[in-house]
Structure formats: C-alpha cells, structure tokens
Design a protein that fits this description.
D-Maltodextrin-Binding Protein, domain 2; single chain; 14 helices; 2 domains; alpha/beta; 10-stranded mixed beta sheet
C-alpha cells in the first residue's frame, strides 16, 4: 500500500491497529505477568477454644476491612495446619515453633510439596503442664500416668511426645487421652486424668480456668536448660506473680515457651503476603505477658524461610498506594501505573511517530521531484547556447511526463496540497521552457 494512501487513512490503518495492539498487550500483561491478587483467602486456625482460632478470627475480620473475603478452618493442631499449607488447602496457617523438622531430623513437609514461608512470629506460647500431683517436676514423671495432650495429630501431643522421646520415655509408656481444652480441664478436676499438657498463650481460656481451679497445680519443669539446648525453638521465660490476675500465678513461675508462626503457602500472591504482614502488626502490636509493646510481630529465629515481602512490611510498613488506599483499589492503581502508563506512552509515541515518518516520506518525495526539476532547469540553462539533440529533448520530456503522472496519482493530505500545486506549476513552467527550446 502506497505511503500517501496509508498516511491519508492514518486513523484506520495506523492508530486504530496500534490501539488494538496495546489493548491486547495490556490484557496479556495484566492477566499473565502481573495478575490481580485473589480476593479470597483461607486461614487454618485451631481448636474452638484455643488461641489459634481466636487469632484466625481476628485476621479474617481484618482482611474483611481491607475488602477481602477470608474463610477460617478449624484444626486439631499445627501438624494439620502445616499439611494444609503443603497441599495448598490453606493460604495462611498458624503453627507453633519447632514444626519445621521432625525429631529424627527430617523435614516435616515431604519432598515435592510446596514450600512455606513465614509471614511473622506473632505470639509467645507457654508449655503448660497442669497436674493434681504437686510432686511432678519432670517430664519423666509422666511415665505410666494418664495425660491429656490433645488429639493424636495436635501440636500439643506432637511436642510433648518429642520432648518425652528425648528423655527416653516411649509413647507407649504414657496413657494418652485425646481430650483437649476445657474438656481436658474438667476431666482433670474429676480426677479422671493425672496431668494436662498444652501449648497456649497465657490468656487462653483453658489456662485461666486451670490456674483458678483449686487442687490443680502448674508444674515447674526441671532441667529446662538441658531441654532448651536440645530444642532451640524453645525458650525459658519467667511468668511473674499476679501477671494474669491476682494470685495468677501465686508465685513467680519459670516456664518453657515457644513461638507462634503465621505461615503462608508457597506461591501465595506477594500482595496478599504484604497485607497479611500488615494485619499481624494491627493484631499483635501491643504488649503481652511475654513481650513488650512493639516486640511482636517479628521475623527473628523463624523455623521456616521468612517472606521477603513480609520482612519489608514489618520493617517499614506498607509503601506506595497500599499505605494510603484500600487494598483492592491500590492493586488496580499499581497495575495501571506499571502496565497502563508505559503502554499508553508507547501508544502515544507510535501514533505520532509513524504518521510523522510517513509525512516525512511524502515531503521527501516532493523534495526529490523539486530537485530533479532543478537539475533539468540547470541543464537547459547551461546548454542554451549548445544544440541539444532530439533524443536528449525526448529524454527530458519523458522524465517530465513521468513526474507529472506520478504527482497526478498522489492523494496528499491538505497540508501538503499547496506544495503539490506549486510542484505541478513548476513542472508546467519547465515544460514550457522545453517547448521554447525545441522551437529554436
């Protein structure tokens, strides 16, 4: 297709195709390279009367304030939560410390499962051992006793069995009960159990209930330093007297503690990871029994690799539009800036440069004809005193006819029409000069 015709129909032949191409590229980039984050998140919590379920409910409420739907899943404990992340059945999950590796040193997640990342350490939980026997001061004394540590796949039992194996107490040496929470507490009150072991925050309902129950004692586990040396995910804290209320506890009590991790499944959208980290700052930023104001959430001493997105938010907070806009509109704005702005600039540039190039081509064509006319006029002027043969005159006349025919076929834009008319006038003038030269 000739340059003049393309330029004449530049909207239909240049700008509309460019616009269509940009829409296709923008759509592909939006959906493939930089897709919108999901609007729905699944959080795996814990048992109904536990801290994990309460945390999950607060997360779901916070996600709702940011325009996202959140579904919470009840869970018997951390092992199930970790498996849900590995199988992609949950996006976020609360997991107690020490769950990254089994006691024999093998990874908890089997090979081939999606890796998980730590969003933040959000809480500090105590290892509570309640009993009606005041003389129980060692985990080895649980041998042969009736002990409630939750269901078989709960984090409580998983941790207690791990500690007992280290002290050479076999699982079969303990009379296990699958009771947990307030049910286990009531069984201990009825003397149907000898001990209740649980991993929970100090303000958990079952902890407060057992601390207030007459005849039930919080055991002081001896040999804590040796336990911590072999289990670095544990720590020793002091539970101050009256820290949970008057007489709760009655004395300063040393307590083993572990951390609570909020984990994300592998491949969770980075924007959702940033939002989850920001939500942990909202929910867990205040002071608690085992930590000061602002100490949590953090990413120190995590069992799983920390999320780079979460680390950035925990250190500096949300940035860009996410810091001052609701979550979903902020994602739209980011994509409009990252995708829409460059494509718009590219489209504007192409829509101007291509027609400008074609316009330059047309002007150059007119200028080339002007140059050829100048050469013909120069030849006639120089050779005016010299006889020019008929063949030379025929050649010049044929070239003039060719230029005249070419200009007649051109359909130039209005801004070039004056130059077109002037060119044809110059051609006519040169032809008249040539006719006078022939008549000599």
């Amino acid at each position: 297709m000739k340059t003049a015709k393309i330029y004449q129909h530049r909207w239909a032949l240049i700008r509309v195709p460019i616009l269509a191409m940009l829409i296709v590229l923008g759509t592909l980039a939006w959906w493939q390279l930089y897709p919108m984050p999901p609007r729905h998140v699944v959080i795996s919590g814990g048992m109904p009367d536990g801290a994990y379920e309460a945390h999950a409910a607060r997360y779901a409420e916070a996600f709702g304030r940011h325009g996202m739907r959140a579904k919470t899943l009840g869970s018997p404990g951390s092992p199930v939560n970790l498996q849900r992340l590995g199988h992609g059945q949950a996006d976020l999950a609360l997991v107690q410390g020490g769950m990254a590796w089994t006691p024999d040193g093998s990874p908890t997640l089997p090979p081939g499962k999606a890796p998980v990342q730590t969003i933040a350490i959000v809480d500090t939980e105590g290892l509570w051992l309640f009993s009606r026997h005041t003389h129980i001061r060692s985990l080895t004394e649980l041998s042969g006793r009736r002990v409630a540590a939750g269901p078989i796949d709960s984090g409580h039992r998983h941790l207690l069995q791990r500690l007992l194996r280290h002290q050479r107490v076999a699982d079969s040496d303990v009379q296990w009960s699958s009771l947990s929470g307030l049910e286990a507490a009531r069984a201990l009150e009825r003397n149907a159990l000898d001990a209740v072991f649980l991993v929970a925050s100090p303000h958990a309902p079952v902890v407060m209930h057992l601390l207030r129950t007459p005849g039930v004692h919080l055991a002081r586990i001896e040999g804590a330093s040796a336990i911590i040396e072999h289990h670095p995910f544990l720590d020793a804290r002091l539970l101050p007297q009256d820290s949970l209320g008057k007489g709760l506890p009655a004395l300063d009590t040393p307590l083993l503690t572990t951390s609570t991790h909020l984990l994300a499944r592998g491949g969770l959208d980075p924007a959702v990871q940033r939002l989850a980290a920001a939500i942990t700052r909202e929910v867990h930023g205040g002071p608690q029994v085992f930590h000061h104001d602002g100490e949590l959430p953090n990413l120190r001493h995590t069992d799983f690799p920390p999320s780079p997105q979460a680390r950035q938010v925990l250190l500096r907070g949300l940035s860009g539009p996410e810091a001052w806009m609701p979550f979903v509109p902020a994602q739209w704005l980011q994509r409009l800036v990252v995708i829409g702005l460059p494509l718009s600039l590219l489209g504007i540039g192409l829509m101007h440069l291509i027609p400008a190039f074609l316009h330059w081509r047309l002007v150059a064509r007119l200028s080339s004809w002007y140059g050829e006319l100048k050469f013909i006029e120069h030849d006639l002027l120089v050779r005016r005193v010299v006889d020019v043969g008929g063949m030379e005159l025929s050649r010049i006349n044929a070239r003039l006819e060719a230029i005249m025919a070419a200009t007649a076929r051109m359909r130039l834009p209005p801004e070039l029409q004056p130059r077109w008319y002037t060119l044809r006038q110059h051609i006519a003038f040169v032809r008249s000069q040539l006719e006078r030269y022939r008549g000599r």
